[in-house]
Amino acid sequence: MVRLLTLICVALLSVQCSSEASSDIPKAEALCIVGASFAYPENCWFEMACERLGYKPINKAISGENISGLVQRIKEHKLMTIKELDSFATLVVMYTHDVDVYSATGANAQYAAAFDYLIKSYTIACQSLEYNRHSRYYGIEGGKPVDILVCTHWHDARKRFNSSVRALDAKWECVRLCEFDKHIGFTAQDYDPATGKHLSVLYAHPDQNATEVIDGITYGWHPKRGRDSEIQQRMADIFCKCF
Predict the structure, then answer these.
(1) Rounded Cα gap, residues 15 and 6, in angstroms
(2) 183-203 burial, b if ≥16 CB within 10 A, otherwise e?
(3) CA angle, 53 as apex, 187 and 64 as ends, to 5°?
(4) Distance (Å) of CA 22 to CA 6, 27, 231
(5) H or E stretch including 69?
């Protein structure tokens, strides 16, 4: 048992992900998302985007969860089945708490460690499909191509997170970005001339979680949800352009 755990730890430390795909591999039929309140199904942007792209949505997001909770689900083998892992092309990640998710030191180092664990453990899981007789990737060298799409926050006010997740993108070959913050249609400097409020507030969900204060400025927190929400539609459009 000690030897097995040692081998797993060595694999996690040394793993390198590759996003190269073989033309012989059948096209996956789904996309999978993990995340918290900005990703769970009530929002609809992910589901609408999957419909447009012709993919089945697999939504594993849990409102209120942070990425440490996701890591625990992975360790307890509660995140997904092997059949689900085999079925989707891309793992989409949307945990956008406004902390540094790249630096391994400091008060929020556990977030960086959790992102690191997610990337490495998912890579190992994809590679293992090479040896699974029931997988479409059986016998394919390297197993399933690793494609992880990490989302920025829905606007650019969460600068700590948005900048650090770009550092992750630069570090890992298999990680790419869905840049909601760059393409949502406004920036942290844009205010409504009629109300003086930041534009994100106008699109915020009208409940107790409508706004948040960052560096002394009030921004929209959770955008209005549902298929009729302009922000959800914009996010679906932005997401589709990643494919």
Answers:
(1) 14
(2) ebeeebeebeeeeeebbbbbb
(3) 55
(4) 32, 10, 36
(5) helix 67-75
User: Which pTM value belongs to this model?
Assistant: 0.90
**CA–CA distance, 115 with 223 (Å, rounded to integer):** 24
Summarize pLDDT for 48-94 with one digit per residue, the tens: 999 999 999 999 999 999 999 999 999 999 999 999 999 999 999 99
Give one word for 87, left, alpha or beta, with left for phi > 0 and alpha for psi -120 to 50: alpha
Structure token digits, residue 179: 């840049």
Question: Mapping DSSP to helix (H, G, I), strand (E, B) and coil, where does residue 28 land?
Answer: coil
Residue that is written with structure tokens 């399933």 in the block? 144
2, amino acid identity: V
Contact 148, 35 (CB under 8 A): no
Helix-strand-coil split of the chain, %, nearest 5: 40, 15, 45
What distance in Å separates the CA atoms of residue 73 and residue 58, rounded to the nearest whole number? 16
Distance CA 58, CA 49 (A): 12
Domains by residue range for the chain, with CATH: 29-185+225-240 (3.40.50.1110)
